[in-house]
Amino acid sequence: MGRTDRIFPDKYIDLHLHLDGAVTSDIAKRLADMQGIVLPAESDALEKLLSVGEDCKDLNEFLECFELPLKLLQTVEALDECAFLVAEKMREQGVIYAEIRFAPQLHCEKGLTQRDAVDAVIRGLSRSGLKTGLILCCMRGSDNEEKNLETAELAKEYLDKGVNALDLAGAEGLFSTENFAELFAKIRESGVPFTIHAGEADGAESVRKALEFGASRIGHGVRINEDPELVSIIAERGIPLEMCPNSNRLTHAVEDMNDYPFMDYLSRGIKVTINTDDPAIERTDIAAEFRYMESRFGMTAEQKREVLLNAADAVFANDEVKQWLRDQIAPGVNEK
Ligand code: ADE
Ligand code: ZN
């Protein structure tokens, strides 16, 4: 079949997906079964517990939905199996490369060390048939500096041995990016590349801080248009934005989706990408995100290709992986 004959896109790249936000009810049941845990609900009620309602107020309320998935992810076996199942599900949905992220410090409630958690997720991902990268998340908070430093040190040790990069996740509206200057000074010195969730629940200044720290990608970055000069900087420097349309809709990163700036950023040459963030919490998958952008904003096949090529260029991986992805997305269009 020629390039224009096949349904497009039939291959996807997801650069921004949280492992604990990808625990669907089938995965939750499997994790509960293997640990002898009785789930607090079944069928529709279980779905409801694992996802956020359309009436979600903000990111803070959104983040409350992680309680049950995190309860199920406190052993090596559960983390390994969850990573495997999430990666396999994505592969079945047409994903050819995914960067999966998780915060090891959130999985130490029953005696695991952060290292145990990282080893387990690396093992689960490597059992899957999906090409993946792993991003370790530090967490926004006020009393977890030691834990964040430990995550950063693990990322340095495991870089190119299962780990690709670092991130900062959590409640941006409660814990400002500027609080993490010291952490990211150390991370920058270590040479581990990083992205930062910014410009999601807080404004453009948060993204400016993330860039000042040395972030090479921005998680979301929806709100950069509060600062026109920042929009130009992001465009000129080719900083990829990991945007997640339905997550942004549900957390009200923009109040009115009529004002969702994705298509504007794309037309300005900003390296925007489409990702799922927390597919189980949002009841979405990567194909649904692309369909949403088409039906809601009229995104064309050519624009989808551009977005996927942006993702291919933005991966935390070597040039060989980038070129392979470009060849998969746009066969015959090899030149960068
Ligand atoms: N953790 C999971 N999803 C997140 C989001 N959208 N923002 C910040 N932290 C998160
Ligand atoms: Zn996220």
Automatic annotation (TrEMBL):
A single Gene Ontology CC term: cytosol
InterPro entries on file: A_deaminase_dom, Ado/ade_deaminase, Metal_Hydrolase
Domain Adenosine deaminase residues, every copy: 14-330
Superkingdom assignment: Bacteria
Cofactor annotation: Zn(2+)
SUPFAM superfamilies: Metallo-dependent hydrolases
NCBIfam families assigned to the protein according to its UniProt record, in alphabetical order: aden_deam (TIGR01430)
Protein name: adenosine deaminase
Native source species: Ruminococcus albus
Lineage of producing organism: Bacteria, Bacillati, Bacillota, Clostridia, Eubacteriales
